[in-house]
Write a structure and sequence with these properties.
- By secondary structure, this protein is of the alpha/beta class.
- The chain has two domains: 48 residues; 269 residues, 2-enoyl-CoA Hydratase, Chain A, domain 1 (Alpha-Beta Complex).
- Helices cover 51% and strands 15% of the residues.
- Strands 1, 2, 3, 4, 5, 6, 7 and 8 form an eight-stranded mixed sheet that branches.
- Helix 6 packs parallel to helix 8.
- It is globular.
- It starts with 13 loop residues before the first helix and ends with a helix.
Length: 335
Amino acid sequence: MAQESSDVVLDFEEEIVTVEEKIAHLEQLSKDEDVDVQKEIKRLKTKLNRLISEAYQNLTPWQKTQIARHPNRPHTIDFINALIEDFVPLAGDRRFADDEAMIGGIGKFEGISVVVMGQEKGHDLDTRMKHNFGMARPEGYRKAQRLMDLASRLSMPILTFVDTAGAYPGVDAEERGQAEAIASSIEKCFQVKTPIISTVIGEGGSGGAIAIATANVVMMLSNAIYSVISPEGCASILWRSADKVVDATEALKLTAQDLKKLKVIDEIIEEPMGGAHRHQKAVFDNLRTALRKHLTELLKLTPAEIKKQRTEKFLEMTRHLKPTSASTTTKKKTK
């Protein structure tokens, strides 16, 4: 399913977007003027497929970062609409307010009652402002904890969709205990005795991401990113220059492929050539298959086994991680 083109054109996609616009123009012309341009459309589609294949075969970490941030990429609301039936949104943290950067509720995934939550970035200026660009405040993470408690009481699996540049860094968020809220959310993930499956669908930024991604199974879309800090933040700290953002992206090892090798994630959900922003339905179908598989396996375990598996997974992860990837690379580059 192709998305309508947005005002944002990635630097390596300029020729691709130009050809897409020509095809769209000719198809509209064919409808409005009854002009036979099918031969030219066919030629342009062949060229388009070739350009997309060439561009997407060997993407750099920075290019994947750009794709992960693409405004036409499907967001949490899109995944909920595509995968969850009878979704009922739940609001508020029962302490301060409802944070719309973090959305969640209950619904059914293929007949199984589930609790669903995730950061929502919004698709246009109005919705981005409404959802604070997917950057949750403390009340967002306390809402997540409330939903996890609900899932635990009702023995409902939890599905989370991660898509945030990070937790909101504003003064008001710090005043209300941002760090504590994130830490408590991570702790809550370890406490619940119901399965948690988390999917990084776009950006997985720092503690804002792991607060709802401390899961039995962690998956990533193939062009998503997941890191302890944004490339821009890393560049400003290590090199004190925004010009080093590409170097920072490579040093962070933030791609799904790197993180699978490091055993930080469990599975990569493939995006068709051209990315999720062009082929949303295919991505929904691929994720549905993976969710079904993992949920079926986890539901065979007892609550105690589910909790133990999640704890052991993260303990084992620390044993596998060695100071060779980002830390070694950055040390070499900063000399």
